[in-house]
Design brief:
3 domains, Conserved hypothetical protein from pyrococcus furiosus pfu- 392566-001, ParB domain, alpha/beta, 5-stranded mixed β-sheet, 13% strand, 7 strands, two-stranded antiparallel sheet, 13 helices
């Protein structure tokens, strides 16, 4: 019997088939919202709001072996989607490793959340607990601001960061796609990127980016150059620095924001060119295809 303090609003929500916490399996006890339950892996779908797009294959394999030996120490978190159907809120790395380990069930907290609450929970938890690269963090912050209608101050409070930290990450998304890709691939650090952001001219940003890689410059050296020392706008042949037309830059930005992946357009003088979407491994490629297919 439901407690009187539950309230009619929540009672009505629990009676809805889309959020019902009962099960259709005969003889099986229904899992309770707010508790830890063993959930079948086949009944759990991936969270479409997951900000992380890159899961290191070797690290997943190591975690999978650990799970085989010791089980899952920390439960994943899911939300109820309908009878015996769940959607992952957080813990995708543990979920994927459990699949690799051949588990049939995983321990999970069951929560009831609407899409916005789920997006906030997924983004905030991943930002705080997963080893996201700086661009993934920046995209997560931008999504929280744009899709959850948060101010930078509100976001800073949610993720327990200074507002200046939020601003520094968001500014990374203004860098050219080539540099963003360099951050993702760890060619340059967050410190290098913050120094590059202070340069107003995109050509100079790209030139200094190439110089960092060529000469293995320290963050302090880059900061010194960014403050005013003349930068030669020469880019090595391995990294051609053709000026990107404004309309192409807009398209690149739109696609990057839409699919949360680095996008690059390169054109030749005859008007032909290449549109490239970057991925680093099989898992990231599959995630990218899934995002494209849902559009």
């Amino acid at each position: 019997m439901a407690k009187p303090a539950l309230g009619r609003g929540l009672s009505a929500l629990l009676e809805n088939a889309k959020t019902d916490i009962t099960t259709k399996e005969v003889g099986k006890a229904a899992p309770v919202s707010g508790s830890v339950n063993a959930i079948k892996i086949v009944d759990i779908e991936i969270n479409p709001f997951q900000p992380r797009t890159n899961f290191d294959k070797d690290a997943l394999k190591e975690l999978s072996e650990s799970i085989k030996q010791h089980g899952i120490i920390q439960p994943i978190t899911v939300r109820k989607m309908g009878y015996d159907k769940y959607q992952l809120i957080s813990g995708e790395r543990r979920f994927r490793a459990s699949q690799l380990a051949g588990l049939k069930e995983v321990p999970a907290y069951i929560r009831i959340a609407d899409d916005q609450a789920m997006l906030e929970m997924a983004l905030v938890e991943n930002i705080q607990r997963e080893d996201l690269d700086a661009i993934e963090v920046a995209i997560s912050y931008k999504r929280l601001i744009d899709e959850c209608s948060l101010t930078q101050e509100q976001l800073a409070e949610k993720v327990a960061k200074q507002r200046s930290t939020i601003t520094n990450y968001l500014r990374l998304l203004k860098l050219p796609v080539e540099i963003q890709k360099g951050i993702i691939e760890k060619e340059i650090s967050m410190g290098h990127a913050r120094a590059l952001v202070t340069i107003d001219n995109e050509d100079l940003q790209l030139a200094l980016f190439a110089k960092i890689i060529e000469e293995n410059l320290s963050v302090r050296e880059v900061e010194t150059l960014a403050r005013g020392e003349k930068i030669k706008t020469h880019v090595p042949k391995a990294r051609p620095n053709n000026v990107t037309p404004l309309e192409d830059k807009k398209v690149m930005e739109q696609l990057s924001n839409a699919f949360h992946i680095p996008v690059l357009i390169k054109r030749k003088k005859d008007g032909s060119g290449v549109l490239s979407l970057s991925f680093k491994n099989k898992e990231e490629f599959e995630d990218m295809i899934e995002r494209l297919n849902t559009r």
